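Need CDP-diacylglycerol--glycerol-3-phosphate 3-phosphatidyltransferase's 3D structure for a figure. Predict it.
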Amino acid sequence: MNVPNQITISRILLIPVFMIFLLIPFTWGDVHLFGANIPIHHLIAAIIFIIAASTDWLDGYYARKYNLVTNMGKFLDPLADKLLVTAAFISLVGLGLFPAWAAIIILSREFAVTGLRLVASGEGNVIAASIWGKWKTVSQIIAASAVMLHNMIFEWLSIPFASIMIYVAVFLTILSGVDYFIKNKHVLIK
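Structure prediction for CDP-diacylglycerol--glycerol-3-phosphate 3-phosphatidyltransferase:
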């Protein structure tokens, strides 16, 4: 197994670790940072989540730079992304920190585009990630991180950054989903 695939698998393996820190209410207390009271276990979960999310860029960069793109990587990389984002949003909804309606829209789009990719794959076509899909992923990671960090820094500035990022993530999620379906409607219309 090559290095990019090992990095991708490490992202998948970090998901349960991140979830343990996010969901188990350790009695370590809170930390007061930049106007926000953050349970220490949420801060640790956010750091693990951000590290895991950053491996998405790292594995892709390494695979392209050293010409190590494989079918296994093409399968594992988007799967790891979906698992990480799904785990974050469902966990945050369960904690009452993230609106369920936003998670439903985001996860519905993920399933729909995955289905589209499966249909295209069955016909021998590969649907590459679009620029909107990449921005969607970045916005989702920022939104989840800001929520986990209890709007840190921005709370101090009285800016509802986490809430704004939820709306940005939902908007870009819908936009990228529509973009995928418009550009690939030929896959479904046969």
